[in-house]
Design goal:
By secondary structure, this protein is α/β, with parallel strands linked by helices. It is built from 14 helices and 13 strands.
């Protein structure tokens, strides 16, 4: 972590809200003090903070998390007021300005909005302003939800091309087994983010306040790695945790280092699409061609088509065993793709009466998963 000059810090609900008892002002002040140290050392920081729904619950006297979408949205609207004010007041003690940035999946799924969000965040960083980012719960629906703030932190990493994502939680990091159930569980200190053993280590547990367990953190780390960012999962209550991490303390938390090839901005945007409009089921030959790198997806390599999509939509490409191989911007609609799947390029005109493109997905519009 030494030498990092731009990072994203995500703070979980259980830390910010002191287990649901309202915002923990002392804890927020502590993290703000640490972030201020990093800023003065020349490190740019984007803060992704959970806690709006939990703070809203505390303000409204709710004993349980609301179940309906409109109740969740209203609760988040109440809590967002307190959450942003808490950060604004804490940073103001150090003479620093903050900015609230609320995002939904639509803001990163639509290319022009994605670029606008990226430009805004980068400008704020250049001005020395600390962006406080959260999902726009008050307008999001199931179709445009980002899902959890671990995912949001990873997407912000991609947006600003941060060098690292730090996820602060109420656990010391990722263990070989669930430490709450197995005393022999060991804390993993350093591992490559693509290591297949991680999938067995990351459980599906979810805290009472937040939506994301260790599996969502692992998924977020893999998304962050697409822009070359490594991820650290650490306990947010450890003394001066952020400063110690940036000083290079190796035994603090779990480092999921980016051992994958960094991909370009356009392909990173494609890969970051959480929702797709359809699925292309590939044969083994197409899978080998895509995995080998540099190949476009041709109609002949597609066995079947699923979903309803139009030209330019994001679709998933899956292997015969159901594993996702890639995502890409398709050149034909679902109806057209169904008519030409499995045929050589030279027969596209015979099937459709015209040739739009020779590829179903061009390699420039294809991002390996």
């Amino acid at each position: 972590m030494q030498g990092v000059r731009r990072l994203v810090v995500k703070v979980g609900s259980s830390l910010v809200t002191n287990q649901g008892k309202g915002l923990d002002g002392d804890a927020i002040a502590e993290w703000v003090g640490q972030i201020t140290e990093l800023l003065r050392a020349g490190v740019q920081v984007v803060l992704v903070s959970s806690g709006a729904v939990a703070e809203g619950r505390a303000r409204l006297g709710m004993s349980q998390r609301p179940r309906t979408l409109h109740a969740l949205q209203a609760t988040a609207a109440v809590g967002q007021m307190g959450l942003v004010r808490a950060y604004e007041n804490a940073f103001a003690q150090y003479g620093l300005n903050t900015a609230q940035v609320l995002l939904t999946h639509e803001d990163v799924a639509e290319r022009s909005r994605y670029l606008n969000a990226r430009s805004t965040l980068r400008t704020l960083l250049e001005w020395g302003v600390v962006p406080v980012v959260n999902e726009n719960d008050t307008v999001s629906t199931d179709e445009i939800r980002l899902g959890d703030n671990d995912t949001l932190g990873a997407l912000v990493c991609n947006l600003v091309e941060a060098e690292a994502l730090i996820i602060l939680t109420d656990q010391d990091g990722l263990y070989t087994r669930d430490p709450r159930q197995d005393d022999a569980a060991e804390l993993i200190h350093d591992i490559g983010v693509s290591d297949p053993r991680l999938d067995d280590m990351a459980g599906d547990g979810m805290g009472a306040l937040g939506r994301g367990g260790m599996r969502t953190k692992l998924t977020a780390a893999r998304w962050a790695a697409r822009s070359g960012a490594s991820t650290i999962i650490a306990h947010g209550r450890r003394e001066r945790v952020l400063v110690r991490l940036l000083e290079g303390e190796a035994e603090l938390g779990t480092m999921l280092h980016a051992d994958e090839m960094r991909i370009g901005a356009r392909k990173r945007w494609i890969a970051g699409q959480l929702q797709s409009r359809g699925v292309l089921h590939l044969d083994e030959g197409a899978v080998r061609a895509l995995r080998g790198g540099g190949a476009s997806l041709l109609p002949v390599g597609v066995r079947s088509v699923e979903g309803q999509f139009s030209r330019g939509d994001v679709v998933r490409c899956v292997a015969p065993d159901g594993a996702e191989i890639a995502r890409g911007l398709v050149n034909y609609s679902a109806a057209e793709a169904t008519r030409i799947c499995g045929v050589p390029t030279r027969e596209i005109n015979d099937r459709l009466g015209y040739v739009g493109e020779s590829e179903l997905i061009h390699r420039d519009d294809l991002a390996l998963s």
